[in-house]
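Recall from the previous chapter that SMILES is a line notation for molecules. Here it describes adenosine-5'-triphosphate.
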Amino acid sequence: MPHTVDATTTIPAVPAPATSTAVAVADDTTVLSPVAARREERSGPVSGATMIAEGISAWFGDHKVLEQVDITMKAGEVTALIGPSGCGKSTFLRILNRMHELVPGASLAGSVRVGGIDIYDAGERITETRRKIGMVFQKPNPFPTMSIADNVTAGLKLIGRRVTRDERDVLVEECLTKAGLWREVKDRLDSSGGALSGGQQQRLCIARSLAVRPEVLLMDEPCSALDPTSTRRIEETIDALSSEVTIVIVTHNMQQAARVSDRCAFFLAAEGRPGHIVEQGPTEQMFGNPSDPRTNDYVNGRFG
Ligand SMILES: Nc1ncnc2c1ncn2[C@@H]1O[C@H](COP(=O)(O)OP(=O)(O)OP(=O)(O)O)[C@@H](O)[C@H]1O
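With both inputs in hand, we obtain:
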């Protein structure tokens, strides 16, 4: 899947020292990692569910694109999946909410457990899996002719949940507030979702995902079509949501991975091997003191 490079996708030139909570950015200024600051602030309980993928391999026909991927995405954390184009990040993300199986000829092996339940278990209903595991895509996809409020509640019908008018109003405000959009749209909830800016549409899509109370939110390059200001707003939203929903984000933007994630996994498909995880760990370590030279080269923009 191609990705758009915008002004925010510059890869940091200088990695932060391993012992520091600072993250180096392209212009050589250092800022306190918001992730580190957030960790310090967090003292209360976190919600969301830990997601554990074990032994994941994937094929399109007989083309094997992922091999033996093992990763735990912890409740209350943001996990960033990074790696060069074509290494299988989006495929892996789609396996995490059973979208991979919608592609004709696609197959997979391994297990994905959310809160201890295997989403591929024969007894698991796909609609319940999609409720538990929301997804936000690269390009915002609100229903353009529906009102802002109706966009937020659009997922309720799919899961068979009925709400009264009052409950609906409360839910719309709650989800738009969590997605960081309420103040901008509260006086025009009945106008069309398609009339919002790209960044607002993406936050509307996040609000729509939240309305069905997911335990995990998957984000596939959610800012790649957005300008730097909208990107910052989405990152703030990710930060605010991270204590209540487990977030897994695919990003090509190394600064973004450093800013928003607690942990990173570096994927690579090379030397005749399908996509696999070369290294994973706390974000500060992955950027400041990675153990594999290929990780070091990638996070410092030497390839990919
Ligand atoms: N629908 C499909 N049918 C066949 N092959 C596919 C399909 N989707 C992806 N692939 C192949 O699977 C491999 C992994 O693709 P994927 O999109 O998961 O990688 P990625 O790391 O997310 O790439 P990018 O960063 O460019 O989005 C690639 O070789 C790609 O060509």
